[in-house]
Design goal:
The chain has 252 residues and is of the alpha/beta class. It has two domains: 6-17 and 95-251, 3-Layer(aba) Sandwich (Rossmann fold), CATH 3.40.50; 19-90, Orthogonal Bundle (DNA polymerase, domain 1). The protein contains nine helices and seven strands; from the N terminus they run βαααααβαβαβαβββα. The protein has a seven-stranded mixed beta sheet with strand order 3-2-1-4-5-6-7, with helices on both faces. α6 (122-133) links the parallel β2 and β3. α1 crosses α4 (71-90). The termini are close together. The protein binds xylulose-1,5-bisphosphate and magnesium ion (MG). Magnesium ion (MG) is lined by residues 10, 12-14, 179-180, 183.
C-alpha cells in the first residue's frame, strides 16, 4: 500500500488569496512607469491563463495589445510589482486561507512532510510564509521550489518533478494542494493526487483528474463544501480526511 508521506502546497490562491494583491501591484507598477494599462478583475482572470508575472506581462502586450515589449521593461515592471506586492504582504494584509495553518500543524504532528511548488517569485513566497506563519516557518518545509528554479512553469510538471526529486518521493506518496487549472494539470500529469480548493479567480476552471474539488479546507467554525467529486468528508478537511482521500484515490 502506498502511504501518504508529503503534502506539496501551491502558493498563490492556495495558501492565501494573493492574486488580488498581485493584480493591484501590477497596476501600481504600470502607473509608476507611466503606462495607462489597467488590469481589471475580469481581464486578470483571463491573464491568469499564463503563469509567472513576467510571462503574464508579455502575454498581455503580445496578445491583448498586439505589440512587442523589450525584456528589460518586462523585468523592470515585474521587479516593481513584486516590491509593491511584498510590501502588502509584510503589512500582513493577506491572511492564510481557512484551514491552512491547522493542516500544516496537523501534518507536522503526523510526520507528514511538507513542501512548496509554485510559479511565483522566491521573495514573494518567503515573505508570505514568514508574514503569515512566523519567522521560523521557512524551516518547516523540506523544499520550497519557486519560479525560475525550473525553466518551464506550470502547467508543465517540472516544478513538481523538482520537488519529488529533492524529497526522494514518488508521485503517489504525495498529495498536491492546488487552486487552478494550471496547477491541477501540472500535478496530475505526473500522477500526483491533487486536492483543489477553488477561489474567486479559479472557480470556473476545469479540474479534470483532481482527487476532489472543494471551496476551501475549512475549519471547525468554517465548514467546507464539495464542488466536484464524491467523498464522505466531515465539516472541514483535517489530516485524517486527507489520508483517507489519498488512500481511496491511490487504490482506485
Ligand atoms: C501563480 C502565478 C504567479 C503569480 C505571480 O503562482 O501564476 O505567477 O500570479 O507571480 P502559483 P510572479 O503557482 O503559486 O499559483 O509575479 O512572482 O511570477
Ligand atoms: Mg495557484
Amino acid at each position: 500500500m502506498t502511504e501518504l508521506k508529503a503534502i506539496i502546497f501551491d502558493v498563490d490562491g492556495t495558501l492565501a488569496n494573493t492574486e488580488e494583491a498581485h493584480r493591484q501591484a501590477f497596476n501600481y507598477a504600470f502607473q509608476q512607469e507611466g503606462l495607462n494599462w489597467d488590469w481589471t478583475v475580469e481581464l486578470y482572470t483571463k491573464l491568469l491563463k499564463v503563469t509567472g508575472g513576467k510571462e503574464r506581462i508579455r502575454y498581455y502586450v503580445n496578445d491583448f495589445l498586439n505589440e512587442e515589449i523589450k525584456q528589460d521593461l518586462v523585468v523592470k515592471l515585474h521587479e516593481s510589482k513584486n516590491e509593491r506586492y511584498q510590501s502588502l504582504v509584510k503589512q500582513k494584509l493577506i491572511p492564510l486561507r481557512a484551514g491552512i495553518s491547522r493542516i500544516i500543524d496537523e501534518a507536522k504532528k503526523a510526520n507528514i512532510r511538507i513542501a512548496i511548488a509554485t510559479t511565483t517569485s522566491p521573495g514573494n513566497v518567503n515573505n508570505l510564509v514568514t508574514a503569515t506563519m512566523g519567522d521560523d516557518a521557512l524551516d518547516w518545509f523540506d523544499v520550497i521550489a519557486a519560479a525560475d528554479v525550473v525553466p518551464i512553469k506550470k502547467p508543465k510538471p517540472d516544478v513538481y518533478e523538482y520537488v519529488l526529486g529533492k524529497m526522494n518521493l514518488k508521485a503517489q506518496e504525495c498529495i498536491a494542494l492546488e487552486d487552478s487549472y494550471n496547477g491541477v494539470v501540472a500535478a496530475t500529469c505526473i500522477n500526483i493526487p491533487t486536492l483543489i480548493t477553488v477561489n474567486n479567480y479559479t472557480e470556473n476552471d476545469k479540474f479534470e483528474g483532481a482527487m476532489l474539488v472543494v471551496d476551501q479546507l475549512g475549519d471547525p467554525d468554517v465548514p467546507c463544501k464539495i464542488i466536484e467529486g464524491e467523498a464522505d468528508i466531515p465539516e472541514y478537511i483535517d489530516i485524517e480526511t486527507i489520508k483517507k482521500l489519498h488512500k481511496d484515490f491511490v487504490k482506485a
